[in-house]
């Protein structure tokens, strides 16, 4: 029997975590354990979790050293065959997700099974890059990725990233030979606006640093991301992309910050 | 001699004593009151008495205009918006114009550039805005007592400018009217000591209601700057006696403005008795001839102009009622202040007392319409409004105001079901709220999920309680319809209202639970966004709990059915002490279970609160746990009804029977651990609780297990309960659940111990 460990990390998000757990408890596949890691919330989140404690296999309410530390703490306690990080505010698309995935996973050939994440705001599928562009990031969403437990427990998350810890994990998994399989199967809905509290530039630079260190020697990481930023900026501000051709990535980021302050876009 | 005759001559005697003693201010006040009394009194003796008073004025030089006889007359009409200033401005304009055509008029110069004796026909469009006036208003402190560069030039423009129609000469009189200058009257007097000021006074309920139907007291026709400035000024001056709420347009803001500027105006009248005439709106309604006589006397002119066209309203009159019960209660301290400082002085104690009952009754019994002031509509210019009308456009406010009410007017239900109550008893705020509250606070959580058509009425039914709630938390469970707009407007207007928007929909149980966590009152109750509260619900239930934080109170339920039908469901079966008997009755679900009870907030959590992950019969499950708590009592309130329950739109009847049966079975089993029902009574209770769903396979197999366990002495309430509460069971579909119950029944019959977990 395929068993899952669903791991939910939360801090100060009472509504999000209840939404997440409601979708977990409705699953028609009973062979899962639920691990909830609450980073000592200061609002009613912890109280709500305590009132649900009889339904949670492993509830820890304790201060942590950031999101990736919290994820590692929960990760190391997991016992299921396959891990899924379904953090507060993410939720399963329907009641049969685990049952369906259990029927599709092949423990002989799979290490990481990646399904689709749906953008909660508009119901659109979050698109991944083509497989041959793994070095440019955006290859999977953790909300939709089932990961073989021993693989993940040995690699863990690196805690020195603020944003790109996920990407870093998937990158290291790829470099250590993990086998990825992509399924055209919606797994979870994810509010993309949540977690965007860190600025656009910070997120982009965090990701660039990570990818550049891993693949910069073999692939044109910086050029690719700069080109994408140019195209995105031109689109967002209604500019001819050629006007940005000579701008570096840092210059465009500075431009955007300046324009946003002035124009409020 | 009659009493009034005696009084008149006694007053004349007192007047002479005051004048001989040099107490001129008191003498002038008495003289004015005497004149008004004569005017209102016996028509036969009035002419000789008026002649006597005129003679006294001449002898003692009581004509307050005499000092200014050499120069032009300077007259300022001042008041808080909607206190009758436009009426007096227009009557004084006619009084002056019959004397001389050379008058400079300025109507609302802090905002408008209108220099006419009447307001009719003025467009009040942006092209008429007075830029210097606006600049003056915004750059002069709200309270200004002495010289000020900008304001002084503004005052000169009003009271020292050449004649409007002939700049080569000076006018004979100046007349201006302002509603934004009550805090600056001393500055006017400092610059023009001969200035005569008519201060218009009106009770807070009428003033504020009238402005709510039109524009805010904060001059927000075109800008909002007065509001934060007002708060900052009061804070700086240490005059903020009551906290100003977050809700920008709440009646508390208006009453603070009314109070502070009424006090300021009264203080000016006290310090400058020769310069100020207090025009009491309520006195004018009762005795307009007397008040006008005294006003003529104050100005120093007598002619029919002041009485011309009095039957025509001055400016738009607001007949709508926009005050809720909450608002009426919030205005009580200011109404008491107005009574003591103004009404008793002008109407006597008896006359003033009539307003104590008249005003609340007028508003509580009136037909409610949403306040326009401060809404998107209230902030539009007349030109914008006209364009909207021409194009048939709408706005969030208009959508709210024009909303069709699916439940029909509550008024019809109030008439049909009022029982032994008078209509007033159902609408007027209770006189002594503190006695009912017994030091406790009461709050309500309203849950809303796409209830755009009904949510405003639900909120209003909580604001119009005869004992208003201290706090109203609306949890908007991720609505995608217009509820959000509606709630934003409501939260802008009512201080007890707190709106919590959930970013994703959690269902009613979790939404209510989050609401109770964010509510900070001693007692809490709940309301669905498509239901209403009967107006005496909170008063009745507060009286029933009587401050006892172990007691639970409930009322009967008024069902509103299709085809304009309604009926009251009796809930008296549940008026019992907490414990076994109450639990057993609830478990069998045979009598109508109370809805939306008033419970101590503490008890909500002691009972474990709502099941956050269940959406069917969650109320029943919670009440079973609540009933099982030790101590306390469930008490039925003496109110016609509590909830007005909407059964017009289908609720749970749309859910398939299998889900009903499953939910009822699992809740029944889960509850077993909390009660002490005798095992042999359980099968009957089970059948009763399942009702029409008793024959569903899930129900039949569960009942079989229950009977088998009882018959074979294998019944273990805690184990059964835990199995039903466990997560594993939730994952089973109904056939698998039936199979599990079947296995358990087999085990019970075989005499095997039940496994700990299936």
What does this structure look like?
The complex is a heterodimer of chains A (265) and B (758). Chain A has nine helices and eight strands. Chain A is an alpha/beta fold and 265 residues long. Chain A has two domains: 4-190, Spore Coat Polysaccharide Biosynthesis Protein SpsA, Chain A; 200-263, no CATH class. Chain A has an eight-stranded mixed beta sheet, sandwiched between helices. Chain B is of the alpha/beta class and 758 residues long. Chain B folds into five domains: 3-60, no CATH class; 66-362, 3-Layer(aba) Sandwich (Rossmann fold); 372-401, no CATH class; 410-653, Spore Coat Polysaccharide Biosynthesis Protein SpsA, Chain A, CATH 3.90.550; 655-750, no CATH class. In chain B, the strands form four sheets. A five-stranded parallel beta sheet of chain B has the order 2-3-1-4-5, with helices on both faces. Chain B has a five-stranded mixed beta sheet with strand order 8-7-6-9-14, sandwiched between helices. Chain B has a four-stranded mixed beta sheet with strand order 10-16-12-13. In chain B, strand 6 (442-448), helix 20 and strand 7 form a beta-alpha-beta unit. The radius of gyration of chain B is 34 Å and the shape is elongated. The relative contact order of chain B is 0.07. The A-B interface holds A 14-16, 18-19, 21-22, 25-30, 34, 44, 47-48, 51-52, 54-55, 89, 91, 120, 191, 194 and B 502-507, 510, 513-514, 517-518, 608-609, 612-613, 725, 727-728, 730-733.
